[in-house]
Give the backbone structure.
Amino acid sequence: MRIRDFVPSDAPRLVEILKANQQYGHPELDGPEAMMRVHQCEAAEFLVAEEDYKVVGFIRGVYDGSRAIIHLASVDPEYQGRGIGRALVNAIAKRFKERGAASLAVTVPGETGFWKKMGFRQTIRIMFAYPIEDVLAASAPPEEAGPQKKL
Ligand SMILES: CC(C)(COP(=O)(O)OP(=O)(O)OC[C@H]1O[C@@H](n2cnc3c(N)ncnc32)[C@H](O)[C@@H]1OP(=O)(O)O)[C@@H](O)C(=O)NCCC(=O)NCCS
């Protein structure tokens, strides 16, 4: 197995893996165009795992200068249970530590068993707003709210 940085030509294969794991509900957040933006983002780490030159999994996350968080990880179902997820977590944790991160979090939409094995404890609740306009509307100062809200 080899772990390396994402390159743009990986995108179609990563979409295949996400679809196979039913993780492709939001192409606008996780599809090829988003992958390119993550690839170009200085704060992000975006790694893929290869087995015999075939891409079989990936992981991505960000380091904000203090804390790091993993946002997405996925391993081809045919290659799960062979240590690929573990190797991806280990590799991204090393990257973040080298950059100065002392802590690492993960957003987990589904079951937590794998992440507990990787050393994570369930402590905080992460709340999610999508689309972001929901937050902009709810947090807007009164003068920016529409006329109906002023009444
Ligand atoms: C979760 C996922 C990334 C793990 O990758 P993987 O390559 O199958 O995991 P590994 O083979 O490296 O497993 C490492 C350890 O975790 C355990 N493990 C793996 N999946 C597990 C699960 N769902 N529940 C409990 N333990 C799990 C393995 O048994 C192994 O333990 P061991 O070393 O004691 O035998 C992969 O199964 C996956 O892509 N799942 C679907 C998508 C998903 O849920 N992604 C995470 C949310 S972003």
Q: What stands out?
A: Residues 86 and 147 are 53 Å apart (CA to CA). Residues 21, 23, 72-75, 80-86, 108, 110-111, 113-114, 117 surround coenzyme A (CB under 6 Å).
